[in-house]
## 1
Amino acid sequence: MGNILNSFNDDTICAIATAMSDAGIGIIRVSGKDALSICSKIYISGKREKDLLSHTPNSIKYGFICDGDRIVDEVMISYMKAPHSYTCEDVIEINSHGGMLVMNEILSLLLQSGCRLAEPGEFTKRAFLNGRIDLTKAEAVMDIIEAQNRFALESSRAQLSGNIYNEVTSLRKDIIYQMAYIESALDDPENYDLTGYSDQLKDKLLPMINKISSLLKSADEGMIRKDGIKTVIIGKPNAGKSSLLNALSGSERAIVTDIAGTTRDVIEETVRLDDIVLNLIDTAGIRETEDLIEKIGVDRAKEKIEEADLCLYVLDSTSDVEDIDKDIFKLCEGKKTIVILNKNDLTPEIKISKDILPMLFSGSDTIDFPVITTSLLNREGLDDLKAAITDLFFNGDLAPKQEIYITNLRHKKLLEEAAGSLQLVVESIDKDLSEDFYTIDLSNAYSSLGEIIGEEVGDDLVEEIFSKFCMGK
Ligand code: GDP
């Protein structure tokens, strides 16, 4: 891999690779050229010999971690010799007891013996910088760890196995072939003939643009399937918004994630309807039974609706339609919205039914939004909600339909750039411009695709991507 990045350190790093909580087993990972010699300073075998340096690669040894004469823990040590390891360097993994105190003691001993504490994601960064994996596979590692649903897991697995890398590499191969051909022909016109070449090039480019377009088409759905649908719940006080939230959360006391170091404004909640993930925005106001619209005003409510992918508009079907209802309704125009006619258990009191709702709101027989009826108090109607969301976002079928889904915004933007550059080549051909006009756009497309897989990327981007990883990975 052609990375010439400054960020590479070749010192030996260590980190606790398992979760920072008490568990049966904990793993402390060491990587670098001195991994074996550093670990040998703090290890004795089960037969009380200091023989770690003779450890056969790709095997596991039983023994003890020691601090001088004091035994710190009974461990199993595995050794993977460079380049056949996760990082392509010598890697030692110490399987200790999984208590925080004991793992931290072992970590301290390693640090005292010559290791440096790894940065988040540094093991995977080394795997990338050493050329074992490309950037899409490195990103897939993080996505597998963070996967919150089956789709996220499966698409990340496919990405780790190279599906995006292979597509991108094959496109780049075709582009570089054409660039090389043009260059050779311009340098050596006697042996390379460019007559009729532009038509041939166009025939090659159009399928490539189509290929990228079809990848791009998968992106919006791919990202929503993987990361969830940004959802806002809206409606008048007492319509049943909190009840919807509770029904979705599955308990009276829904889980509220307070993102560390931030204010209450960014409290976000994630709920799941089977495999559909909803990222609920601005639920704090709803929880305190202050109404979103009353509290923040119509303008802010509009902003929230604009920010969301989905608007759940809860209406109390036993109350009369007021102007504010019509205002909210207007705010939702142009947005994927589901109207939830709530309190349908109170049959005799119903004033807004599915049939008359369009007339009440738009003065006609139809409205653009799907309408469902619920009794959120009794948690009834959630299946209809799920079906309505499936229709709106997944063409009525939750099963993945594409072979490859783009699930990463970075990939999406770069694919758009690449498609744009290839399109410019086609336009140059259509305008009968000379061949040297083609090369610059071909080269831009080649670079954009290269950035996806991590060729032609700068230190900053690499740092940014890996800093989001967890410790020990
Ligand atoms: P919010 O102000 O929009 O968050 O509304 P709440 O969820 O707090 O509900 C307001 C009141 O309506 C509460 O007393 C709920 O128990 C009641 N409520 C909510 N949903 C239903 C329902 O489906 N049927 C009935 N009968 N009452 C409901």
Note: The radius of gyration is 29 Å.
## 2
Amino acid sequence: MLGKKYKGNKQNKIPFNGTKKEYHTQCPFCSVQCKMKLVEYETSDQKKYEVIPVNNPASEGRLCIKGRNAHQHVMAKDRITQPLLKVNHKFVPISWEKALTIIKSEFTKIKQEEGNHALGVYGGGSLTNEEAYLLGKFARVALQTKHIDYNGRFCMAAASSAAQKAFGMDRGLTNGLNEILHADCIILVGTNLAECQPTLTPYFSKAKQRGAFIINIDPRETETTALANLHLKIKPGTDAALANGILKIIVDHELVNHQFIQERTSGYEFLREHLASIQLDQIEDITGISIDQIKQVALKFGKAQTGMIFTARGVEQQIDGTQAVRNFINLLLVTGKIGRNGCGYGAITGQGNGQGGREHGQKADQLPGFRSIENPEHRSYIAKVWNIDEKTLPGKGVSAYEMMEKVHQGEITGLFVMGSNPVVSNPNANFVEEGLKKLKFLVVVDMFLSETGRMADLILPTSSYLENEGTMTNLEGRVTLRRATKNPPRGVKHDWEILCEIARVLGKEKFFSFTSPEDIFNELRVASRGGKADYYGITYDRLTQSGGLYWPCPSIDDSGKARLFEESFASIDGKAHITPVLNEDKKEKTSDEFPLYLTTGRILKHYLTGVQTRRSPQLNSDNNESFLEIHPQTAEEFHIKDGAWVKLESRRGSATVRSKLTNRIRKDTVFVPIHWGDNQSINRVTSQALDPYSKIPGFKSCAVNIIPIDDPM
Ligand code: SF4
């Protein structure tokens, strides 16, 4: 299904004489945000569904298998449709009124006894912009806690941090997707977009047909590396060193763009000095990539007239993620390949609203519009928009995993989780689970009883993508409007309604008197006005008419900006900042006890922790358990047969999965997907070490041992 236009699942077009309903929506999963129409055919004894892709600029009328089956989880029989309270270790349904009374009582008690910051809020990158914005306001105004962060911290935080430092601004793609067709050389680092964002694949295959040279850097062979002209099967976690090797050859061969460097950047001299001290044979040793291949990449990219670089979780989810991404941005800057057609950078965001979710205050250090919570002017502006005294606005909190450490230490004793499943998505998941058990009060807002939900004291049922309206910002920075065309089941509320109702019972109603998502969006527009992610000129009407608008869009007659940095960068001096990046390899080392590297990732049919996709029969049918990808020679060495149960162990914990022998992976590395919980949760194994700049965990490399076992229990 790579690149083919999906015309709808015609097998569902049964002879029919019942009722027909149409729901216009967009996919709830990845950051492309493909548009679609779901048609429901209902007769007296059955319902059938047809999914029809709808043309839009990003997906160009394509849908992948996840989008085609997204509705199945919405219809799942185990959806929660009433608040559930845990009584004697069992959940019992209660009314919304009672649920709100309990929340008021528990939150108030914690605030009175332990202070406001004993409460924490944990959000998600799949929430709409309106809800991500409202959640930030809810934490700071309704609960008055500094502790809010979200699962996007695990997604593209390193790329965000690198782009902020290099360009002064973070938008996933610096160019529209259509410019990929104009790039002569494309470097893909640590991305398996053919499985994670499948409808993007045709952009790259068409560029290749046009003559582009595609280089893919990944420890595994994947559907995406199959697209490349050259695949560098790198040792996990050594991308920064590889970029140093490429940069050194570019500089030594005088392939730099001196005019661009002089007029548009700062810091090049430091980089040149640093590269002079680097030996290519040392880079070969560190990365496992031959000098010849490094040279091939450098000459191809350096000599190309146009070029783009895309990074994703493989390079970003490392404890040097920010610096590794910066080194690939250095490559663009020294060759002058940014700010013009077919030249730019892209972080291929994973979550549906990974981009918008990181712009409007869901992060510990952030206020709406990419404002800083530590900047006095920014604080004062937002305090005015929110009509509060700036002195009551809390300061900076801590990142998502650090929040879990505070839970463990007993500093945070009440937690509110919305749109996230931290028990499965956090690294060192056993530690996280132990911490959550210590909480005095855990509220989880979800459609299903997720692994985190099972631990909650109170669960609040929320609506699905078909039922909940709001804007989403795709990986390009294009804001789209997802209309709600289906009613939620009785007893279910939207996330934004839940936040407003809790704020009301906490006595903060006047700050949360919203009656619709559009109402919230209109406040978000004003709050973002003048910030780097300026949405002021974007309205629901304009989104309906246009099908999507790029930010920044500062006024209602502005058409938004697809290509950034044509004339200047967003830093204070208007220049992009080049920085030397050391060949440090701080990732966990293998040893006799833990002799292999583990890397993790996604597969085509599942999304994040699988709470939704595992409930879709079509998606789950032949992918209903996790697996370990292992090279046949490594398997032989460890006495592991194909399809056998294997226990993976690290210094933190273990997981049990079935083996899958393949030549597609390096002999020193094994791969396990991230979509399962309990004893298949690979994050019980991964390391809690964080990148110091972005606080993203180093999910993508740690040291493990593997043991064949007879019984998975
Ligand atoms: Fe499109 Fe991504 Fe959904 Fe697939 S998962 S249909 S690529 S938005």
Note: The first strand starts at residue 19 and ends at 26.
